[in-house]
Predict the structure.
Amino acid sequence: MDDKPVDKKIILEELEELHKLDYDYADGRILGSMCTEAHPFAKEVYCKFLDTNLGDPGLFRGTKTIEKKVIESIGKMLSLDNAYGNIVTGGTEANLMAIRAARNHARKYKGITDGEIIIPDSAHFSFKKAADMLNLKIVEAKLDDNYKIDVESVKRAISSKTVAIVAIAGTTELGLIDPIEEISKIAFENNIYFHVDAAFGGFSIPFLRESGYDLPVFDFSLEGVCSITVDPHKMGLAPIPAGGIIFRREEYLDVMAVDSPYLTVKTQSTIVGTRLGASSAATYAIMKYFGKEGYFKLIKRLMDDTMFFYENLKKLGYEIVCEPELNIVAFNHPDMDANVLAEKLENLGWKVSVAKCPVAIRVVLMNHIKRNHLEELLKDLKDIF
Ligand code: 0PR
């Protein structure tokens, strides 16, 4: 730290210089991100609530009411009338809370002390962090030929130690939706906690289904689903950090509660203590401002662009990993390693991401990628071919 105060102008100049090193979403060159520029209205609201702290909700009763309202609203979007949960920092924290709830529930009601969680090979790495922190063993379920969780493999993986099964609605690498209805049945019949990670798909699948897209049911209308992760800071256009964890029943929060004696509320179930109210307020604002109609318009444009990109890639001769279900396209050059192709694209100024399972270039069509960017990208891909 400097000994003496530094002039604001000098500080801002230094920060702006460094900020210039960051990629800007608006350039349309960031192809592998599930985040995007937040909506200006959400940012405006966010700034108004910067000093609120939901870690001590008795002091911020208005903002706590906003969090309750936003959880209720996300719950309804996911077919649940009485939702419990929190706006947290992102999908990682949401998944960690879900797995912690499942572990504590199984410990309390089934006496399981050395639990296991069943996750698909396609699961986000946040589950590895959760298992590590919660001292749980991961049992990986295989994927079928379509890169979705193999239902038989889940059945085989169940043991007396299983505390949770996880399936994905919008996988990180391919944007695919697991057969959640079938897994829900299995979990329900075996009395096992079932968590759906819809961090990416949660803000798009409901609107696509409602307007007739042929996508599978993934939400609380399935009786086995105990919790869902859904992230406002991905497809919800809320500012970072905003993840969502929704529980079917309050008991899942209760089994995580620890005493917080000197605060305005006497127990706390969240992982984080001092936590942002701004994320809840911004998410509430953008959900109201957009409505179902606004979110549908957004995802419809992205799906149309996804199909435009997919069709044109095929025409150029690129191999597509799978027919897109959501706004992600993964592809390969027929005779070029994906990492070599990625490097060529990087040299042309594209920020690409290479999927692992299977190895492929992966383009996530977020709001900052417009049709003209796709046309430029297709032109570069044509030249490379
Ligand atoms: N669940 C799923 C299905 C996800 O795809 C992700 C993140 C998470 C959970 C974890 O969410 P948080 O990162 O909010 O904790 N998926 C992206 C990924 O790891 C996140 C991302 C976003 C990556 C922007 C890069 C990027 O530029 O690939």
In short: The two ends are 52 Å apart (CA to CA). The pocket of 0PR is lined by residues 33-35, 90-92, 95, 124, 126, 168, 172, 197, 199-200, 231, 243 (CB under 6 Å).
